């Protein structure tokens, strides 16, 4: 099978890190469970200038490398790879973040997972002249059987694959979301993702 895996808040605990950074930078205490919006400027009540600095800080290599692995992610993915499944990590991070992002995967035993940067969120404003390793037209030529994603903003990238099973990693910012169709399943952890893939 071909499996799409999102990076932030699927493989690693990005939002928990941003929660700590918001305290350090702005004295704003928004615990993980209270991050209700995928738009972090809204969740953390930041103005445009603060949001830009916040995102720049969150994409510095030392921060990207410090993200904690979401429990079970590398074990489950390596189990898939050992059974011959094809894994593509498709992140909305800009290509300027590629090297530390690749490094983090390698450091966490995911050397065999491919990594692509796709402009999912139009976030190029916070890193000037950012580019992405995967052009949209090339992304749309790719085919997947299963996707693991936490962001409702990314669901539009699945519309062209009517058979795709989408496993939505349960996060506070996607709990209110109405899924586009019955191919979507909420999964609370990597054990339930593994079980859902085994059933497929
Ligand atoms: Mg994500």
Relevant terms:
alpha/beta; 34% helix; 6 strands; 2 domains
**Can you count the beta strands?**
6
> Largest beta sheet, briefly?
6 strands, parallel
Helix content: 25-40%
**Lateral strand order in the biggest sheet:** 3-2-1-4-5-6
Tell me the radius of gyration. 16 Å
* Small molecules in complex: magnesium ion
Q: From N to C, what is the helix and strand string? A: EHHHHHEHEHEEEH
Number of structural units classed as domains: 2
Tell me the fraction of residues in β-strands, as a range. Answer: 5-15%
The end-to-end span amounts to: 10 Å
Content-based structural category: alpha/beta
The CATH class of the largest domain: Alpha Beta
Shape: globular
Q: Tell me which oligomeric state these chains represent.
A: single chain
Annotated CATH architecture of the largest domain:
3-Layer(aba) Sandwich
The CATH superfamily title of the largest domain: HAD superfamily/HAD-like
- What number is the mean pLDDT? 93
